[in-house]
């Protein structure tokens, strides 16, 4: 069942091999304590290490798009699929009409962008950037410092001067970074 | 000798030593003459020196004392230990002492037999190692370790032996009475990488965990492989394993009897823990109680818990072995240089090649890749130690004709690797890192987002269960938790096993202490620190910050954005303009204050010094923040979906549960992970409120109970009766936080931001959790007493104070 839904979002030669899918399924089952068949926020919050991750809450939220309260296995895998390592031979053979695979560079960046852009307006406003910064920085940094850092960050990335970072600007500011490597987990290969 | 020994020594431990010492060389008889020469003095003898009488225990005790003092002494001088690896220092010490003894006495005082070593010296080492072995890391990387240990060692042995044989065949070595088998044997001896020296160096260099554990595990297990493949008495290198183990055992005792032979190596052995024969018997280490010869091949995994982690005492034997070897070499007759030149590059080259090949294979299967730098470090870290020396000393002269040659060669190899490679590995690692660092100036965006990526990746790894999840380990820990812990641990110890809770608890304690100290220091009115004045970024740029130079070798090299301390560079390049100053300040601030992702701050513990607890502080801050947010969302969920009735029900449930819990010891509640906590609590929930829709109740209750379990358990460890009512504390948190703390002077009406609240060394929420330390079983009372008057309005039930 889930394999077929997986195929819809991936091009056929790139289907996740059985073993890692199976592993993810076991993980899903392990997380789903009450054997409900889906995961709720609480199940994800029980992972202790997420509580000490500054972006933990946001990542959990990303599993529940559009205000859902539950995520089933295909949804679970869909989010994790963003983190598959990128195969080099993909880009050559790809059929341009098919949707881009989830683990492409653009889609990885889009995933992160959505973590920042909470109101889904397609831009990271200064306020949203400030919030993210506040999450990631220790408590010794004062409010003024944070604001100035935010200003500079937005300024660096912003090209059209609207005071917010759109997705394209975001992508452009990170063009030198090796996203494919930084945002991949080998086990999902 | 034996009679005197039995009568004289009253000490239990050493009494048992003496029968073993009965096997000592008869050469001692020489000393008996002068020792008993006091008899013929005139008059009444007030004081006699019965040296021989107390000699053995005395020397042992003195030896232990000297070794311990030396060890401590080395670490007093931090400058020295940071440059020179400790094993090298110990070798020097051993050489000095060996020289003294040898110069004074020219005879062996005594040698150490396997029995002595096994029964008296090994158990403390083993236990010490067992406590400190990093289990999780080890078993997580077990496949890699086994590959390196078994295949790698065999490969090393083969290449060394074969290359030497090749050189021999080409005639460069001159005329020697050796065959291929001897070379192979020698190769297998020399292939044993000694863990002590390597790991001491690694500890100092602070390599990343994976590299450390691989090297550690490899050296752990390769001794066994060496012995099995080597069969020290040279009776056929590749026989069946059981023969190889039992035969050395059968021959070791006779070998110890033969300690009188004039072989220089054994004669200079100090009264130390140098195990001349024990490597051969090392594999069945754990079964030391069994009679020799009845051993069968111990599976490698059984040896694991026993293998000594580099402990202080462990290093002594190797060092002393080396030192004695050094002294032995001094005496050695033939200084044949023929074997040595090919050996060193041969063995090192073989090792490097082996490492590279195996890593290539492993990287196809491993999650965390082993980088080039790791490989370089691994192959360069192939130091040989006392194991090799001990094994070569064991060689039977009759079977291996050129034994002395091998011995001297081994000594040279060992010395070279330990001293030269040990000294240079640290600068090498640092140099490699610096050379590969990123010269491009990272932009602010990149730095920030790069860090965000790291956090995201760690989170996804945790969710997908990659690094933290191992089925076997889970099963084992479940078993452990359900059965073993209940049998073997006290209840209070069981409670405090969850790591996060532990951290939380300790941090609360620290908060309490610092809260009180802060209050005393400042007086109550000036309590709150002004955030802005204290934290101006007037950091002294002239001193490089050490904190950014740490962390793993390969991680730093792998990472090219959120980079290492190049703020000095940014400083120099952009000194001129003001805007650039601001830029620099911003960079600096970010660099300093951004939370570190998990890979970066988790580096190796050190047994010699305490590492600072920065990661715990970071954990604590993030943890507080997360919990607070979750509670807010739960509260809003509670409000949104269900009216106060729900809250009242929850509250009642909590109290009932709490009451029940206070009678049922918390030990029943599994604490290993919050997940398990939750399950049990949900079951309890369902028992008490069957009419509750389990679905929603579980969901909403879950998060609060998570917090409940935390606060409950941490406080419960201190006061079994007084349990914090968890539903209160979050409410108290939020409602209190919206009010002005009492110690703020009335003029300051600014509500401190969330961050400022946490900045107070003990925010009200924290302190609240500490309150039940001292107090009654009624949780409400504890709050009242803890926080004084402003608590009164909140003593009522939460439903009335819902916002």
TrEMBL record, chain A:
Localization (cell): Cell membrane; Cytoplasm; Nucleus
Lineage: Eukaryota, Metazoa, Chordata, Craniata, Vertebrata
One GO location term (cellular component): nucleus
Origin superkingdom: Eukaryota
Protein name: Calcineurin like EF-hand protein 2
InterPro entries: Calcineurin_B_homologous, EF-hand-dom_pair, EF_Hand_1_Ca_BS, EF_hand_dom
Keyword tags: Calcium, Cell membrane, Cytoplasm, Lipoprotein, Membrane, Metal-binding, Myristate, Nucleus, Phosphoprotein, Protein transport, Repeat, Transport
GO terms, biological process: protein transport
Single GO term (MF): calcium ion binding
Domain spans labelled EF-hand: 19-54, 104-139, 145-180
UniProtKB/TrEMBL annotation, chain B:
Composition bias type Polar residues, residue spans: 255-266
Signal sequence bounds: 1-29
Biological processes, Gene Ontology terms: regulation of intracellular pH; sodium ion import across plasma membrane
Keyword annotations of the record: Antiport, Cell membrane, Endosome, Ion transport, Membrane, Phosphoprotein, Signal, Sodium, Sodium transport, Transmembrane, Transmembrane helix, Transport
Topological relation to the membrane, as annotated: Multi-pass membrane protein
Transmembrane segment boundaries: 58-76, 88-104, 116-133, 145-168, 180-202, 405-425
UniProt-annotated location(s): Apical cell membrane; Early endosome membrane; Recycling endosome membrane
A GO term from the CC aspect: recycling endosome membrane
Domain Cation/H+ exchanger transmembrane: 64-228, 350-431
Chain segments carrying region Disordered: 255-332, 781-803
Stored InterPro entries: Cation/H_exchanger_CPA1, Cation/H_exchanger_TM, Na/H_exchanger_3/5, NaH_exchanger, Reg_factor_effector_dom_sf
Reaction catalysed by this enzyme: Na(+)(in) + H(+)(out) = Na(+)(out) + H(+)(in)
One GO molecular-function entry: identical protein binding
Biased composition (Pro residues): 273-282
Function (record text): Plasma membrane Na(+)/H(+) antiporter. Exchanges intracellular H(+) ions for extracellular Na(+) in 1:1 stoichiometry, playing a key role in salt and fluid absorption and pH homeostasis. Major apical Na(+)/H(+) exchanger in kidney and intestine playing an important role in renal and intestine Na(+) absorption and blood pressure regulation.
Family in the record: Belongs to the monovalent cation:proton antiporter 1 (CPA1) transporter (TC 2.A.36) family.
PANTHER family: SODIUM/HYDROGEN EXCHANGER, SODIUM_HYDROGEN EXCHANGER 3
Protein name as annotated: Sodium/hydrogen exchanger
């Amino acid at each position: 069942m889930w394999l077929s839904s997986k195929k819809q979002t991936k091009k056929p030669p790139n289907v996740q091999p059985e073993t890692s899918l199976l592993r993810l399924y076991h993980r899903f089952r392990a997380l789903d304590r009450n054997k409900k068949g889906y995961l709720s926020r609480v199940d994800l919050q029980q992972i202790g290490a997420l509580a000490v991750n500054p972006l933990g809450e946001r990542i959990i939220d990303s599993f529940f798009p559009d205000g859902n309260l539950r995520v089933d296995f295909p949804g679970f895998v869909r989010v994790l699929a963003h983190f598959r390592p990128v195969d080099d031979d993909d880009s050559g053979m790809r059929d341009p009409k098919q949707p881009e695979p989830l683990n492409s560079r653009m889609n990885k960046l889009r995933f992160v962008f959505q973590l920042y852009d909470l109101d889904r307006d397609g831009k990271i406003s200064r306020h949203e950037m400030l919030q993210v910064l506040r999450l990631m920085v220790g408590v010794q940094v004062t409010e003024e410092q944070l604001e100035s850092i935010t200003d500079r960050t937005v300024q660096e990335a912003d090209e059209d001067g609207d005071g917010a970072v759109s997705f394209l600007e975001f992508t452009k500011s990170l063009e030198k970074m090796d996203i494919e490597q930084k945002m991949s987990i080998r086990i999902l290969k | 000798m034996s009679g005197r020994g039995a009568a004289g020594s009253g000490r239990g431990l050493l009494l048992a030593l003496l029968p073993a010492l009965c096997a000592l060389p008869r050469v001692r008889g020489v000393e008996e003459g002068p020792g008993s020469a006091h008899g013929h003095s005139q008059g009444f003898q007030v004081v006699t020196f019965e040296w021989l009488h107390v000699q053995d225990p005395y020397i042992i005790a003195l030896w232990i004392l000297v070794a311990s003092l030396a060890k401590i002494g080395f670490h007093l001088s931090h400058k020295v230990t940071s440059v020179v690896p400790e094993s090298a220092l110990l070798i020097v010490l051993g050489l000095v002492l060996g020289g003294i003894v040898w110069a004074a006495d020219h005879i062996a005082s005594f040698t150490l037999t396997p029995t002595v070593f096994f029964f008296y010296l090994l158990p403390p080492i083993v236990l010490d190692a067992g406590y400190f072995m990093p289990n999780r890391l080890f078993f997580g990387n077990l496949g890699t370790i086994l590959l390196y240990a078994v295949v790698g060692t065999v490969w090393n042995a083969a290449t060394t032996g074969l290359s030497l044989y090749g050189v021999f065949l080409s005639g460069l070595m001159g005329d020697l009475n050796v065959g291929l088998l001897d070379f192979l044997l020698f190769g297998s001896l020399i292939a044993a990488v000694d863990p002590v020296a390597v790991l001491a160096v690694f500890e100092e260099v602070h390599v990343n965990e994976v590299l450390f554990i691989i090297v550690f595990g490899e050296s752990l297990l390769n001794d066994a492989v060496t012995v099995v493949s080597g069969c020290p008495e040279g009776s056929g290198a590749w026989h069946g394993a059981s023969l190889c183990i039992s035969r050395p055992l059968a021959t070791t005792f006779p070998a110890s009897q033969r300690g009188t032979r004039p072989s220089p190596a054994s004669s200079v052995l100090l009264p130390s823990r140098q195990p001349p024969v024990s490597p051969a018997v090392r594999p069945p280490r754990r079964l030391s109680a069994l009679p020799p010869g009845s051993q069968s091949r111990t599976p490698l995994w059984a040896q694991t818990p026993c293998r000594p982690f580099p402990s202080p005492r462990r290093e002594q034997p190797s060092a002393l072995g080396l030192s004695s070897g050094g002294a032995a070499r001094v005496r050695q007759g033939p200084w044949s240089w023929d074997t040595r030149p090919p050996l060193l590059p041969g063995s090192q080259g073989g090792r490097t090649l082996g490492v590279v090949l195996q890593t290539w294979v492993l990287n196809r299967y491993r999650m965390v890749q082993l980088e080039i730098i790791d490989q370089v470090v691994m192959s360069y870290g192939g130091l040989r130690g006392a194991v090799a020396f001990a094994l070569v000393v064991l060689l039977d002269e009759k079977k291996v004709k050129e034994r002395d040659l091998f011995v001297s060669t081994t000594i040279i190899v060992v010395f070279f690797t330990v001293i030269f490679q040990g000294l240079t590995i640290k600068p090498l690692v640092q140099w490699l890192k610096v050379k590969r660092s990123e010269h491009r100036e990272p932009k602010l965006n990149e730095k920030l987002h790069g860090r965000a990526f790291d956090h995201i990746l760690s989170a996804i790894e945790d969710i997908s269960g990659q690094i933290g999840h191992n089925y076997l380990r889970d099963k084992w820990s479940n078993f452990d938790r359900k059965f073993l812990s209940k049998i073997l641990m006290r209840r209070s110890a069981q409670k405090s096993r969850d790591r996060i809770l532990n951290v939380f608890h300790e941090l609360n304690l620290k908060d309490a202490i610092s809260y009180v100290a802060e209050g005393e220091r400042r007086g109550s009115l000036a309590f709150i620190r002004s955030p802005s004045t204290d934290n101006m970024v007037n950091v002294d740029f002239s001193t490089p910050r050490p904190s950014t130079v740490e962390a793993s070798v390969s991680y730093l090299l792998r990472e090219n954005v959120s980079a290492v301390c190049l703020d000095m560079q940014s400083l120099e390049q952009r000194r001129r303009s003001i805007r650039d100053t601001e830029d620099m300040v911003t960079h600096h601030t970010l660099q300093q204050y951004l939370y570190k992702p998990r890979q970066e701050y988790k580096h190796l513990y050190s047994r010699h010094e305490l590492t600072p607890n920065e990661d715990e502080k970071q954990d604590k801050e993030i943890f507080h923040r997360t919990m607070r947010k979750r509670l807010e969302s739960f509260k809003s969920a509670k409000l949104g979906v269900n009216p106060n009735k729900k809250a009242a029900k929850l509250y009642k449930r909590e109290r009932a549960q709490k009451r029940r819990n206070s009678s049922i010891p918390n030990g029943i509640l599994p604490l290993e992970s919050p997940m398990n906590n939750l399950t049990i609590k949900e079951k309890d929930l369902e028992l008490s409120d069957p009419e509750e829709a389990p679905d929603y109740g579980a969901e909403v209750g879950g998060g609060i109970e998570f917090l409940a379990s935390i606060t409950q358990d941490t406080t419960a460890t201190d006061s079994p009766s007084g349990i914090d009512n968890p539903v209160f504390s979050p409410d108290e948190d939020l409602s209190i936080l919206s009010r002005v703390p009492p110690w703020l002077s009335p003029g300051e009406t600014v509500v401190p931001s969330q961050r400022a609240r946490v900045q107070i060394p003990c925010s009200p929420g924290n302190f609240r959790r500490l309150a039940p330390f001292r107090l009654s079983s009624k949780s409400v009372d504890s709050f009242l007493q803890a926080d004084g008057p402003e608590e009164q309005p909140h003593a009522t039930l939460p439903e009335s104070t819902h916002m």
